[in-house]
Amino acid sequence: MHLRLRLPWMSRSDRRRWGAARTLGDLCGLTALWLTGHIRSVPGTVPNYGPDEETAAITPALVALCHAGVLTTWSQPGLSETVGGAPWDQRAVLEGFVRPGVVDRLVDAATAAGLIVIVQPPAGGPPLGARVDVTLYDGDPYTMVGHQLDRDLLRGEWSVVSDAAYAELATAVQLTLISPEFGPGGNRLWPILLTAVGVDPATVGMHAEPVGSSR
Predict the structure, then answer these.
(1) 124 — phi, psi (to 5°)?
(2) Mean pLDDT value of segment 154-165
(3) Which H, E and C letters describe the chain, residue by residue?
(4) Where does the DUF6919 domain start and stop, copy by copy (predicted)?
(5) CB neighbours (10 Å) of residue 5?
(6) Mean pLDDT rounded to a whole number for the chain
(7) pLDDT in tens, 177-207
(8) What number of other Cβ atoms are within 10 A of residue 105's Cβ?
(9) Looking at the whole model, is its pTM more than 0.85?
């Protein structure tokens, strides 16, 4: 039997790939490769670990959004289950950096569908105070989203990328889109967002309520 050692740092090959990225589109493409297991590490997470198991249900949507110009940095599917004998409920969520032309389409579609929309200005701009509970454990808030990454935190999380790629991150809109419903019904978020960026949800196997339970 061979044991695979998980190193506490990003491999040299992955560092080279991220360091070679120059644009937001480059970062989106590498994130899609990480989501599908073709590279082992992504900035801002524990090195040499892939997405959480629950992400499998929404991976096709995340990959398609990456290819459409959305740098997905945190997400989760809507689900309801029992953890440790207590109820665990999640809202479907997508957070990321988005180029200007795509932001308008996503925000318009999300607003029309009654989703919760938080648009934070680029790093360094005045942050909005809005934060939203997206996970409840036994009825109590467990996870909140919607905060702005300032320049120091952004540089720390993305320290392996080039100055050119960092500059694009620092000037990109930080977008959070949230289903108002807890549980699987909130997974209507994914077809809405895919349609907004010109992707037919059926072509990536996404439906209103994906089975299963992201980064």
Answers:
(1) 100, -20
(2) 95
(3) CCCCCCCCCCCHHHHHHHHHCCCHHHHHHHHHHHHCCCCCCCCCCCCCCCCCHHHHHCHHHHHHHHHCCEEEEEEECCEEEEECCEEEEEEEEEEEEECHHHHHHHHHHHHHCCCEEEEECCCCCCCCCCCEEEEEECCEEEEEECCCCCHHHHHHHCCCCCHHHHHHHHCCEEEEEEEEEECHHHHHHHHHHHHHCCCCHHHHCCCCCCCCCCC
(4) 13-196
(5) 7
(6) 90
(7) 999 999 999 999 999 999 999 999 999 988 6
(8) 17
(9) yes
- Cα–Cα distance between 75 and 64 in angstroms, integer? 14
Cβ atoms of 75 and 67 within 8 Å: the answer is: no
Question: Cβ contacts of residue 55 below 8 Å, gap of 6+?
Answer: 35, 62, 75, 76, 77, 214, 215
CA distance linking residue 142 with residue 131, whole number of Å: 13
Cα angle value 56/62/68 (rounded, 5°): 155
Residue 7 confidence class, pLDDT cut points 50, 70, 90? low
- Each residue of 34-87: pLDDT tens digit? 999 999 999 988 889 899 999 999 999 999 999 999 999 999 999 999 999 999
Cα–Cα distances in angstroms (integers) from residue 131 to residues 39, 92, 114, 150, in the given order: 32, 15, 17, 15
Q: What is the CA radius of gyration of the chain?
A: 17
Tokens 């090195």 -> residue? 47
Q: How far apart are CA 126 and CA 139, in angstroms?
A: 32
